[in-house]
Amino acid sequence: MTRPIDLTAPPAQPNPAAPARRSDRKWGLIRLASPFVILALWQLGSAVGLIRQSVLPAPSLILEAGIEVVRNGQLADALAVSGLRVVEGLLLGGFAGIALGTAVGLSRWCEATVDPPMQMVRALPHLGLIPLFILWFGIGELPKVLLVALGVSFPLYLNTFSAIRQVDPKLFETAHVLGFSFWQRFRNIIVPSAAPQVLVGARQSLAIAWLTLIVAEQINADKGIGFLIMNARDFLRIDIIIFGLIVYALLGIGTDAVIRAFERRALRYRS
Hints:
The chain is mainly α. The protein has a single domain, classed as Orthogonal Bundle (MetI-like fold), CATH 1.10.3720.10. The chain contains 10 helices and no strands. The radius of gyration is 26 Å and the shape is flat.
């Protein structure tokens, strides 16, 4: 027995969000597929001779070189050394940048005394200080870590300083009325308000850390990913050189993804 049709029922309304979701999926698939299309064209160009192997090896050859350095343990050793350098530089430079940015953001006196020399040092190309760092600190680990720390500190310093100065003054007025102490204002107002911009500075600092490490490890280094690349240059192994650069890029993308995941979790209250 068929069910009678209710002519008084309102017609079903289309879901306005459905086209937007379909569009997001379409562009997401395109973004995901674009690197594979480039790799396929690269491989095809190498196969037909449009791209010379002596200039740019095919992706398959670079993959074979990567498997080679993974199997012989060179990549694991290089990753351990390079990762430790970045972590040490991030901790040292990050602490200095956030501490100085907080002091300058909270104090006009610190802004007048600390900010001018910081801006002067920031104007210097920190990678140009490599010869001076070698003369000062030798050719060991210390100059490499200090170069990373110097590059890392300025994005965090500037973002922390700017974030504190942009906190809504009405929040401070409310805290004054409620009788908040300095530490209560700092913990409950300044830190939550400044956190988004400070995390942006952390992402910028991570990119600069890996960029600095690429240069620092290729000068007077005997271990690390940069040394792996320089050693491959001596043996004309372009495939290993490109694989090392890809490793640097993947490390940068991976650490940035970690910061973004922490940002989403730490700032989930903003949604």
